[in-house]
Amino acid sequence: MISTFRCGVLLLSLALPCLVIVTFSAPFWYDVGFMTASSGGSKYVFGTLGYCLIEPGAHGCSKAKVGYDISIISVIDADHPSAEIYSSLNTLTKILVLFPITAGLVLLAFIVAIPSRHIGYGTSALIATIACVSILSALVLELVLFGIVQRHGNGSRNYHTNWGPSTWLTIAAFVAVFIGTILMHYGWIVERRKRRRSYMF
Fold first, then answer.
1. H helices within the chain, ranges in order?
2. CA distance linking residue 52 with residue 30, whole number of Å
3. What integer pLDDT is reported at residue 120 of this predicted model?
4. How far apart are CA 42 and CA 170, in angstroms?
5. Which of 2, 13, 3 is nearest to 112 (CA)?
6. What is the strand order of the sheet 42-46 is part of?
7. 199 exposed, middle or buried (CB, 10 Å; 0-12, 13-18, 19+)?
8. CA dist 164 → 47, 76, 137 (Å)
9. What pLDDT, in 10s, does the model give residues 162-192?
10. I want to staple 173 with a disulfide (CB 3.0 to 4.6 A). Which of 15, 50, 166, 198 is the partner?
11. Which CATH architecture has domain 4-200?
């Protein structure tokens, strides 16, 4: 019978592919991102390390880097917010680097947990906890960032914004990591109690 700890590890393994896809969203995977802004046949796709513009028969993407210039939304913005707002949005895009960091942490927790017994349980559970805090922070900031983009985008007569698959994958990954972390900690506590009882008898 699979242990509670191993169930938690299994959930981490399910979250990992989601985080990998999110990490390699636009500009790597040009039509996958957190949000899209569409008008006619043109569509902007905002991802983790950049954005893409998809047009009929062609597409172009920004260079992949930590933090990107999201002031491109000025072309879809009816309210024309100040440069200070754009500067804040550009800063928030740098926080998206938490997604590949979280993917690395989840992978590390998974690797440590697979062959682990006793001490390794606690180490992998601790790494999973850090990953859980990381993905929660990234998710909240991502929702704030693209919530602002959506508000301004939907204020335009020509463009319509939609949440992209990366957002839903992030939510699914967070749920899996959160529950998995709880199960791993519980399994670790149970294992410690078993060890203590074995020493007593």
1. 4-23, 83-95, 98-113, 119-153, 165-200
2. 6
3. 75
4. 25
5. 13
6. 58-61, 51-55, 42-46, 35-39, 160-163
7. exposed
8. 9, 17, 19
9. 999 999 999 999 999 999 999 999 988 887 7
10. 15
11. Up-down Bundle (1.20)
Question: Using one digit for the tens of pLDDT, what is the confidence trace for 15-27?
Answer: 999 999 999 999 9
Domain extent listing, the chain: 4-200
Quick count: other Cβ atoms within 10 Å of Cβ 200?
A: 6
Q: What is the DSSP letter of 193?
A: H
Q: State the Cα–Cα distance between residues 127 and 85, nearest whole angstrom.
A: 35
CB 190 within 8 A of CB 197: no
Alpha carbons 45 and 8: distance in angstroms, whole number? 33
- Binned at pLDDT 50, 70 and 90, residue 195 comes out as low
Residue 29, helix vs strand vs coil? coil
100-137 core/surface letters (b: 16 or more CB in 10 A; e: else) = bbbbbbbbbbbebbeebeeeebbbbbbbbbbbbebbee
- Bridge partners (DSSP) listed for residue 105: none
Are 28 and 22 within 8 A, CB to CB?
Answer: no
Taking 70 as the threshold, does the pLDDT of residue 12 lie above it? yes
What pTM does this model have? 0.87
Confidence band for 116, pLDDT divided at 50, 70 and 90: low
